[in-house]
Every structure is written in structure tokens, then in C-alpha cells.
Amino acid sequence: MCGLSLKVWVGRVGRAWCSRLARGACQVAAIIGSWLPWGVICRGSKSVELVCGAFGLTAGPGASLIPVSRGAMGRVWCLDLGAERYAVKELFWESDEESLRPEVTFTAHLESAGIRLPGSLPGRGGRFLQELAPIMMVAGCGCTGGLMACPWTLADPGLAVQIGDLAGRLHALARPAWGAVDPWYDRVPGPATWDQLADAARGQGAGWGEAMAGHAGLLRDLADLVTPMAGDRLVTCHRDLHSDNVLVEASGELAVLDWDDAGPACPDRELAGLLMFWHVHDDGTADDAAVQRTLAAYRAGGGPGRLRDEQSFGMYIACRLNFLEAQASVALDPGAAPEHRAYATSEISDTLARLPMPSLISHLTSLAAATLG
After folding, report:
1. Which residue segments constitute the domains of the chain, with CATH numbers given?
2. Most CB within 10 Å of its CB: which of 98, 220, 311, 333?
3. Distance CA 179, CA 102 (A)
4. pLDDT category, 42, cuts 50, 70, 90?
């Protein structure tokens, strides 16, 4: 049996929305479990019928299920029912119903306070996680009111203000955190890990082995900035506020997608990660003006986070390093499906190329101190 989860904004969804949502929805991190069978969803009508049956949807003539995008932890398919379309998430890792309930409750609280985000659709028995025959496992998202995704660019000055305001309101509305901090967010692999992975990669003839060996010093320096989060500052955060997880609606409002990783974190650490995700160029330099606009809007929006020092970037660093180790493990695993190994290899190269330099972290910390106080 395979675990399924369907999250849906019920309503009419344009194709642009479906594609844009899918790219954001497939970014998942830190799901603990074991690999599920690979390639369990197919394009055929049987897959459509099983997914719809699990979540109370009606599959009429011409209904289809088409792959759109994938991330490290899952693949997104577009379920097209004609008048309604949904992004359907195929999970690569085991999950459970209990782990979804806090997310459902928290997002309902934020939605009632005016934050634009996906709601959740329960399936059979009121469960948000369904088990179907091994042919597939599924999750999906849609939108209310027929809203469409709009073109946008990170260089837009207005967008820098909007994302700062959004983050400020999210943190101002955040509820006390449930449970303990997942080690994914404030623990990192030991320094010997990178040499071991590099040696294993070179032993298999993997090209990324030399690149990882060359970054070993930087990886150790970054790891030194990762410390446990202070329990008295923890609230429930999104924990993955990168640009693929924010949709600009036709109205100009921002909608936050992919709440799978929501959980305990310090607002300052989520704010630091947001700056990295949104305002650092491919060459590793920061857009200072955009950073300042975002920080000012964050404060005006009621955001309590303050970047105290370089350790405020600890959650961002921990996520990057843990993701790197996880993908290296998949790439080296001869038992993993070829598709997963190929994806992991590409992610390793991209992650190594985008590791932040300590000088960038210090620069952003100084900018934040000048703007937020």
C-alpha cells in the first residue's frame, strides 16, 4: 500500500496556475521515512479514477493526469477534470496522517486571518492521507475563484516590499510551536562526512566527487554557524519560503504554497533564509536595495524577527547541508531508482554552486542590523 495526500483549493484553475503551483508544491524537505516504490502513478484512466475516488472528486470523460514537475521528495501531476484542475503530489517517502494534522490546523488559522494559501481536502474517512493500491500515491493543490498565476521577477521593487510584509504578518500571526525542532533545521553532518562522500563519489566515478572535495573547507565553515534554536523563541513557521513557494495572483496578492514543512523555528532564522532565497544573485552577491525594502516591510508588518548575528542564518545553512548530504546518499545508492539518482546528481551540483560565502552572510547581517536595529 502507498500513502497518499491530497491538498486542494477547490475551484476552477487555469493551466498557468496549475503549472506554477506544481513547481512550488513539489519542493519538500525533511520527511522522515523510507523510499516508496518508484513510478507508482501512471497516466491512464485507472490512476485518475483511483485518485478521484479517494478524495471525492468526479472524473468525467476526458479527465487526465499529466506529470508536471518533481522535487527531491515527490512529483507533481496535473489532474485535469475539465472545469476543475488540481496539482497532485506523488510522495516518494512514507508519511502518516498524524503528521499532517498540525499543518491543516495551522493553515486554517492563517487563512482565517487573511493569508492567501491552499486549504486541505480530506478524503475517505476524513483522512488527509490516503492509502491506495500500489499503482499510485497522490497529493494535489488547486485554487479558489479561478485565480491565475501572473508573471513576476525578483527584481521588482514592489515584490520585495510584498514579501517582507507577508513574512512579517506570518510571524506576527504565528502560533506557539508544536513539538520539538526537527534536527534537519538546526543540526548538520559532522566535518568528516564531506570527505567520506567525496571519496565514495570518486570511487564510483561520479563527477561531483571532486567538486565536493573542493568545497569541504567552506562546508565546515558554514557548519560552524549552525547552533540549536532557542526554545523560548520558537513559533510555527513555514520553513521553506523560497520564491517557488509564493504565487503572485491576478489581483497582485501573494499566496503561500507548500506548507508540508511547517513547524517550530525562530522567526529570525526564517527571515534570514528568506533574504538568501529572494535577494542573492547567481554570482553570490546580494541585492542590497531589495534586502532593505524587504526588511523594512517586515518590520512594518509586525514581524518580530531580528538578525542578531551570523548564526541567524543557521536554519538556511542546516537545510542546505542536510539536503546536500541526503542527495549525495541517494546518488551513491545503487539500489535507488535511476531517476532518483539522476535527480540527486543534478541537485548536488546546483547546491554546491550556490553555497553562501561567509562574507555574504556577514554582509546581510550588517544590512539587517542597520535596517531593523
Report:
1. 2-141 (no CATH), 157-372 (3.90.1200)
2. 311
3. 10
4. low
